Amino acid sequence: MRRFQEALKSHLTKVQERVTLERSELKEALRNKLKDREELGVNLYGLQQELARQQMLLEKQHDEMAKLVQFRKQCEEDLNEVRNMYKSTQNNVNTQRKEGKWDGQFIICTVENSFICVF
């Protein structure tokens, strides 16, 4: 019986050592995972801050682009208005020349501080 008890004790001691070693390895792995998780959280926070900054820049550029599009549209409308006035004035002068009524003086038109001179 003594021999059985010694064998059992030896076996249980080995099992206890193995379980203790496995437990310490798991604790170490858990500590490493927690450290990795914390580092990942810090990196994620930094990336979120960068994303927010990039989104603000994108919105700012979008607003600037919208203003430029509006400005271009206004400039194109002004250009079309000036072209139409020029064509109209040119047609009037040509008509007056054909009828012999044009006295050779300048015709000056102003459009928003710009001058168009027609002979």
Protein described:
The protein is mainly alpha-helical. The protein has one domain. Helices cover about 80% and strands about 10% of the residues. It is built from one helix and two strands. It has a two-stranded antiparallel ribbon. Strand 1 and strand 2 form a beta hairpin. The longest helix is centred in the middle third of the chain and has 98 residues, at about 1-100. The termini are far apart.
Give the helix/strand layout.
Layout (H helix, E strand, L loop, with lengths): L1 H98 L7 E5 L2 E5 L1
Antiparallel strand pairs: 1-2
Q: Keywords for this structure?
A:
single chain; 119 residues; mainly alpha; 1 helix; 2 strands; 82% helix; 8% strand
What is the element string, with H for helices and E for strands?
HEE
Instruction: Identify the overall geometry.
Output: rod-shaped
Over all CA atoms, what is the radius of gyration? 44 Å
Question: What is the SS-derived class?
Answer: mainly alpha
State mean pLDDT (0 to 100 scale). 88
Helix content: over 70%
Q: Give the strand line-up of the largest sheet.
A: 1-2
The beta-strand count equals 2
Any idea how many domains? 1
